[in-house]
């Protein structure tokens, strides 16, 4: 369930990448309307892309944090906690076998 929630949120974030094409179209339109040079258009596009990347990074971090909080509220264990318990059980099983001999 934890992974499903995370994937759903990240899918939404992936939709932001579709805005790349829209940003390029907007720049082309601004170049035509305001007679911007190609260089100025590229600079503007680069600024838009950087802002989008920063926003996407923040959104991803917020999504991960919310998923983590939801897992905590539901009492779910992390994969690290599960792995630690698995190793402990394996160790205890080994000790039981050795003590039975």
Structural account:
With 101 residues, the chain is an all-alpha fold. It has one domain (2-100). The protein is built from 4 helices and no strands. The protein has helices spanning 2-17, 19-34, 38-74, 79-100. The radius of gyration is 25 Å and the shape is rod-shaped. It starts with a helix and ends with a helix. The model has no long low-confidence stretch (mean pLDDT 78).
Class per helix and strand makeup: mainly alpha
Radius of gyration: 25 Å
Number of domains: 1
Series of secondary-structure elements, N-terminal to C-terminal:
HHHH
Largest beta-sheet characterization:
none
Q: Note the beta-strand portion.
A: under 5%
Molecular shape: rod-shaped
**DSSP strand count:** 0
Number of separate helices: 4
Helix proportion range: over 70%
Mean pLDDT over the full residue set: 78
Q: Low-confidence parts, pLDDT < 50 over ≥5 residues?
A: none
Q: State the end-to-end distance.
A: 42 Å
